[in-house]
Structure formats: C-alpha cells, structure tokens
C-alpha cells in the first residue's frame, strides 16, 4: 500500500532510479525493498518507464516465438 502512495506522488515519470528504499525510509520508516518488481518500476520510473519495461518483455517473448498464432 505504501508503494502505491509513493507512485501516486509522481505517477508519470516516477522518482528516479534506486530511490525506492530511500523514499520508504523517509516517508514511512520502512526498511526493505519491494517484493513486486512492477510496483518498484512504477515508483522509480513511473508509468512511462514501466510501460517501456513491459514492452521490452513483450518484444522479447514475441521474438522468441512465445506468442504463436493459431490461425
């Protein structure tokens, strides 16, 4: 829940690379990393960066033949 609070403070561009732990300590007195990579990318890179992250995975899976058309 705290990760989403950080995300909504800067939803489009995020807070910057390697800022998640620092922001959690500063705002919520919580030490530790996110156990959800998508939430981590949303907080650090915003919607723009997370979209690029997901597009890279989709491109990789498509190039490897993971998505096969059954037409």
Count of helix runs: 3
Regions with pLDDT < 50 over 5+ consecutive residues? none
Major sheet: size, sense and barrel closure? none
Question: What's the total count of β strands?
Answer: 0
Structural class: mainly alpha
Determine the N-to-C terminus distance.
42 Å
Blueprint (SSEs and pairs):
Layout: H1 2-9, H2 20-28, H3 37-63
Helix pairs in contact: 1-3
What would your notes on this structure say?
- The protein has 71 residues and is mainly α.
- The chain has helices at residues 2-9, 20-28, 37-63.
- Helix 1 crosses helix 3.
- The radius of gyration is 15 Å and the shape is elongated.
- The N and C termini lie far apart (42 Å).
- 17% of the residues are buried.
- The mean pLDDT is 88.
Question: How would you concisely characterize the structure shown here?
Answer:
By secondary structure, the protein is an all-alpha fold. About 60% of the residues lie in helices and about 0% in strands.
